[in-house]
Amino acid sequence: MGGKEHLKNPEQMNGEMEGTTVTLLNDKKVRSQGHSDNGDIGTHLCMSLKLMRVEKMNTCYNSEVKDDVSCSHFQNVQTACCIWEEKSGESETDTDSEEVTNDQKTNENTTKLCLGFKGTKSHQKKKPPDSEISPSPPAPFDHRIVSAKHAQINSFYNVERTELLGGGRFGQVHRCIEKVSGLKLAAKVIKVKGHKEKEEVKNEIQVMNQLSHNNLVQLYDAFESRNDIVLVMEYVEGGELFDRIIDESCNLSEVDTVLFIKQICEGIQYMHQMYIIHLDLKPENIMCVSRADYQIKIIDFGLARRYKPREKLKVHFGTPEFLAPEVVNYDFVSFPTDMWSVGVIAYMLVSGLSPFLGEDDNETLNNIVACEFDFEEDEFQKISDAAKDFIIKLLVKEKCWRMSASESLKHPWLSDSQLHFRINQKRTHTSCSEAEPPVDQ
C-alpha cells in the first residue's frame, strides 16, 4: 500500500543551495522505489527553505491524554520575569494573555509558575544498574563556545581527506587529528557560495554552542575561508542508526528500540528546555557511539532554530518522509514538530517499515497530511500494545495533542522499571536459547 514501504539501501542525492533558497531532496537518502538514478531533480518535489516570523502566537502545547484534556492557551508574560511552563518544561506561550482556568491553577502536575527559569528541574533518578542502558559517554573535551577562525584547518589538524565518514547536502565529513593533543575528531566541510549560506552555517555554530548533553554531538572548533566553513566536532564511530534499520543481519528487537528512543527523547528534551528545535530528526542524523552498543548521539543542527515564544516560525524544509503535517502545510512549527519525527523513527525501528512513505515525494506528503497509518502488517504482530500506544500519541495531526519529550519519557513504554524488566526478559530468553538442547531419550 502507498504510504508504507520496506526500507531499502539509499542512493545519494545532494541538495543545492541557490540564493535565499535551500533545495533538499530527501537529503542524502532516497528510499522510494519510484526514484530514478539519473539525478534529475526536476522530477522530484523540492523543499525550499523559507522563514517567516509572525508576532502573534496562539498555539498551545498541552499534551495530556487526548480524551481527557482539550487544547488550552497559556498566559502571555515576559520570559525573563515569569513563564508558564508545562510539567514537561516544553509548553508554548500564548501572547493573547488569556485567563488561566481554575482547573489549570489547581493542577500543579500540569502547569506550574516558574520565576526567571526556562527549563524544568531534573528529577534525580537512580543510575540504572544494567550496562546495556548506561548513558552515552560525554565528549572527550569540555563544552566550549566556538567561533569560526579565519585560518586554515591544516595548520592545526591533520585531516584525512581520503577517509570519508559521511556526506550529503551539507558537504563531507572527514576524520581529523588535532596536532597538539592527538585528539581524534570529525571535520565537517561545508561548501558556501555566498553570505546567506555562511549565515546558515554560523547559525548551526550558535545552536551547538548552546547545547551540552551526552546525547548531542559536541562542537570543538570551526574555521572559515572564502569557499567553505569547517566544523570540527566530536568523533562518533558507530555509524548511523539508519544503517541498523536497513541491515538485514541486524535484527532490532523491541527492547533495542526502547533503548534508542529513550536516548533520543532525552536529547530532545534537553534541546527543548534550551528552546532549540531540531527540525531534521531522522535515523541518518542519529549516530551510534559504537557498533556494539545502544548509545547514540544526535547530529546535524544545520536546520535547527531557536524557538522564541513571542514569535511564530514557519519552515518549509527537511526530509519529506519525516516532515510533520504543519511543515507540509507551511503552518507554525514548535517543539511538537520534533516529536512527530520521533514517532516516525519509533515506527520504523520496531517494524522496518516507513508509515507514510509513498512511491514519490508528492504521495509521501499527501500521506502525511492525511495522517493515516496502521499496525496491520505482519511486522507488528509481536509488537507490544505499549509501543503502539507510544507511536499513536506522537503521530497526531494536531500538534497540541502530541506528547512532549518529557511526557514521552514518562510513558510506560520508556519507563525505567518497564525497561529493566524487558531487558531481564531479553537476557533470560537469550540464555535459554543458547543453552544446550536436552538429549533425546
TrEMBL record:
Whether Acyltransferase counts among this entry's keywords is: no
GO cellular component term, pick one: nucleus
Q: Which UniProt keywords apply?
A: ATP-binding, Kinase, Nucleotide-binding, Serine/threonine-protein kinase, Transferase
Keyword Nucleotide-binding: yes or no? yes
Which stretches does the entry tag as region Disordered?
A: 92-141
Which parts of the sequence bind ATP? 188
What residue spans carry the Acidic residues bias annotation?
Answer: 92-101
Please list the residue ranges annotated as the Protein kinase domain. Answer: 159-414
- A GO molecular function held by the record: ATP binding
SMART domains named among the record's database cross-references: S_TKc
**Pfam families cross-referenced by the UniProt entry:** Pkinase
GO BP terms, alphabetized? intracellular signal transduction; positive regulation of apoptotic process
Please state which protein family the record places this protein in. Answer: Belongs to the protein kinase superfamily. CAMK Ser/Thr protein kinase family.
Specify the protein name. Answer: Myosin light chain kinase family member 4
Gene source species: Leptobrachium leishanense
